[in-house]
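[step 3/7] inverse_fold.run input=structure_tokens len=420
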């Protein structure tokens, strides 16, 4: 992509009213635009990031047997009354149609939709287990939105639902889901600071589990067990005071962002809708369920919160909008301009994603500042100073070096081939 043709432009100043680092940097760098409190537009650079996050999640859900569907965001009141949550779900957006006078909700979650949906297809033990997931925008009427992409009123979420014949089968799949989540966070570049965190399972499970990433921007307090490398949330620490895994009492308190959660639902949402199956003997039994959520925007915001410096964002390679930011200087010189365009063409021919700063009206200082702000992993510079070579610098390193173009192509391909 040519930067001169990019829909967005960078901003020098952080937007007023945005305290969160993720919102400040993402807006300044042109990844998102704020429409109103808790609601953001994803711009071309932001869409490239969110799609890469989406594809990582999709691949890991597919790997544990998930089948992708897309359920409606517009949901009937009757389904929410069936579970008793129409009046008790505080963040539910409710409204009445001007024409039919029927009442509806905008989906904050999809248990009320997926359970009756599954009833159409799960009839026998032979139909179980089965796992379906979607990646879709959700709506929650949050009392106080804050922290940029970390808490909004409209947001993208992956929710997977699993259906089982008994608790034992659910338990086995639950462990697979745990590992899949670790795989997601590893590939997204935040695994070193993300902990499996014990949370309350409510009235139908001893524990649920959150995945919490250490950050000063976090709203949550977690307590880390250095022995087990797991954590517990504040609710569990107040109830038990010890690590549920090993009984350790010396837990370290940290601030963290919840980037995902997994939950054993049991029959909480199958029972109200009569979601049953016939077992091997023909007896009817209630389907046992699990649910597994990840907020895509929240994950994107978390990545920025823990991967930035005073100059801007530092994207992990797996989710960066481009692999390379090619910066052309002295482009009014025909020879330099020709060389920069040749480098751009060769990178594309080698299937390397590249943003080419081909602007002729921006100073070298502005171009370098923009490159640091946008945060693409590798910066290449073509200028009079670089001669026949190209300057190569990683965003997370201070030093740069000159290489032949063939050497640079090899370095980028070698880096891409390494496991995330």
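[step 3/7] decode complete -> sequence:
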């Amino acid at each position: 992509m040519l930067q001169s043709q990019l829909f967005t432009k960078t901003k020098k100043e952080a937007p007023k009213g945005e305290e969160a680092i993720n919102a400040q940097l993402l807006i300044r760098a042109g990844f998102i635009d704020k429409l109103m409190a808790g609601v953001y537009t994803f711009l071309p650079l932001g869409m490239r990031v969110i799609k890469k996050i989406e594809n990582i999640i999709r691949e890991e859900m597919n790997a544990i047997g998930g089948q992708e569907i897309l359920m409606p965001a517009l949901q009937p009141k009757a389904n929410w009354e069936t579970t008793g949550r129409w009046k008790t779900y505080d963040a539910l957006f409710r409204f009445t149609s001007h024409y039919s006078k029927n009442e509806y909700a905008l989906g904050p979650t999809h248990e009320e939709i997926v359970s009756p949906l599954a009833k159409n297809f799960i009839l026998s033990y032979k139909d179980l287990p089965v796992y379906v997931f979607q990646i879709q925008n959700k709506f929650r009427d949050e009392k106080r939105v804050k922290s940029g992409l970390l808490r909004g009123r409209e947001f993208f979420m992956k929710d997977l639902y699993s259906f089982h014949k008994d608790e034992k089968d659910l338990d086995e799949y639950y462990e697979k889901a745990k590992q899949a989540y670790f795989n997601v966070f590893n590939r997204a570049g935040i695994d070193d600071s993300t902990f499996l965190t014990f949370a309350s399972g409510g009235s139908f499970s001893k524990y649920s589990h959150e995945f919490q990433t250490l950050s000063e921007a976090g709203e949550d307090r977690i307590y880390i067990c250095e022995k087990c490398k797991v954590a517990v949330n504040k609710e569990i620490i107040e109830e038990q005071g010890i690590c549920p895994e090993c009984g350790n009492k010396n837990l370290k308190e940290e601030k963290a962002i919840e980037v995902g959660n997994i939950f054993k639902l049991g029959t909480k949402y199958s029972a109200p809708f009569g979601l049953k199956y016939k077992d091997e003997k023909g007896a009817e039994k209630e389907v046992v369920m699990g649910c597994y959520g990840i907020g895509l925007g929240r994950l994107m915001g978390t990545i920025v919160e823990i991967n930035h410096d005073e100059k801007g964002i530092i994207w992990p390679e797996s989710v960066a909008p481009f692999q390379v930011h090619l910066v052309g200087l002295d482009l009014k010189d025909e020879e330099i301009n020709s060389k920069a365009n040749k480098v751009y063409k060769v990178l594309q021919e080698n299937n390397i994603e590249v943003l080419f700063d081909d602007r002729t009206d921006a100073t070298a200082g502005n171009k370098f500042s923009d490159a640091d702000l946008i945060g693409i992993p590798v910066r290449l510079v073509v200028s009079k100073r670089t001669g026949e070579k190209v300057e190569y610098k990683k965003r997370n390193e201070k030093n740069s070096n000159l290489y032949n173009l063939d050497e640079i192509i090899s370095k980028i391909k070698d880096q891409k081939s390494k496991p995330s």
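[step 4/7] annotate
The mean pLDDT is 95.
The chain has ten helices and 23 strands.
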